[in-house]
Amino acid sequence: MGPLNLTSIEHELYITGNSNLANITGFENLNTIGRRLWITETIEDDLPDFSNLTTLTWRIYIAHNPNALELLLPKISGTISEGIFIFNNASMTTLKAPEFLSTVNGNIRITQNPITSFTGFNNLVNVDGYFRLQDIQATSFPDMINLITIGNNLRLENNSGIENLNWIQNLQSIAVSYTHLTL
Question: How many helices (H) and strands (E) would you count in the chain?
Fold first, then answer.
């Protein structure tokens, strides 16, 4: 299937529980999702190309997609209200996280993905909830030089490739709870 003419979804895009769906394409022209992007339990090895998506206001939830190789979300900007949850994608090696996103009013959880290429979050300033990165194999983490505040906790755990914390060098505040660094 070629690109759809679809450029905007007012509320949510849910692709879930379609265990035989092996071809999710046609979203190359999509630039706005009003609330949530939710993709779970697919057998697709190539998740939709969301590289032109600039606006998503509520939640990104990409989980339990055993064959998904990459996730491309580089142009999302502004604020996400609920959070970013990308976990348990057993084959995901590439994550291009939002480069122009400034605030996440909820949590960021990127766990249980064997990511070897990890970019994005260049303009992220504030995460109101927790920020959890776990089981990432990349040796280079995104330069989050603008990240100043995390509202709950920072949890870095079992990231076998991580060599230093220079990528969060300007972090000024972790407000509550605990910080768990297992390097």
Answer: 0, 19
Cα distance between residue 15 and residue 39, in whole Å: 5
Torsion over CA: 81, 109, 121, 31 (sign): negative
Token pair 């190359």 is found at 28
The answer to whether the beta carbons of residues 104 and 128 sit under 8 Å apart is yes
CB atoms within 10 A of CB 168: 19
Q: How would DSSP label each residue in 112-160?
A: S---SEEE--TT--EESS-EEEES---SS----TT--EESS-EEEE--T
Q: What is the pTM of this model?
A: 0.92
Residue 32's DSSP bridge partners are 8, 55
Over the stretch 89-107, which tens digit does the pLDDT of each residue have?
999 999 999 999 999 999 9
